[in-house]
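[agent] plan:
  1. take the single chain provided in the ticket
  2. run structure prediction with default settings
  3. attach structure tokens to the ticket
  4. add a short note for the reviewer (M.T.)
[agent] executing step 1
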Amino acid sequence: MATLGTCSSEGYIRAVETIARELNQPAPSVIQQGCLGLAGAIEGDASYIDPSGQLDKENYRGPAVNHPQAPIDPNLLDRYGFLREGLLGADQRIDSIRLNSVENYIRYHALSLS
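[agent] step 2 finished; step 3 output follows
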């Protein structure tokens, strides 16, 4: 799991291949997951997370039901295991759900790996 930019640069893949070559070992397969918004949430970027709970839908840029790059599948809400205290909009319409904790970003992206 890394930022979208890190995954697109294939930096992890090249690093693992270099180390394997130095150890005279075959390179293992590397599966990357570009995690939209995870770094922003960790860094406290107000476009992805707001500890005050005031993050409005218009300024939110993280995973969402209708997000073209990082859609939250409403059919998988139970499987994501989101922590209620790390969600905004859950008491409104389902398409207004916004992730508001690092833990929920990780839960979203971990399920997206499968």
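[agent] step 4 note for reviewer: The helical segments are 4-9, 11-22, 38-43, 77-80, 102-113.
[agent] ticket updated
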